[in-house]
Amino acid sequence: MVKWSGVALVLLGAAHLVAFGIEALPFVPRWLGLELWAAAHGLSFAAQPPAFLASNAAFWATLGSCAAPSILLGALIVRLADQGVAVPTFVGWGLCVWFAVCALLVEPSGFPMGLIISLALLLGLHRQRRAAAPAGERSRAG
Question: Which residues in the chain show pLDDT less than 70?
Answer without folding.
Answer: 135-142
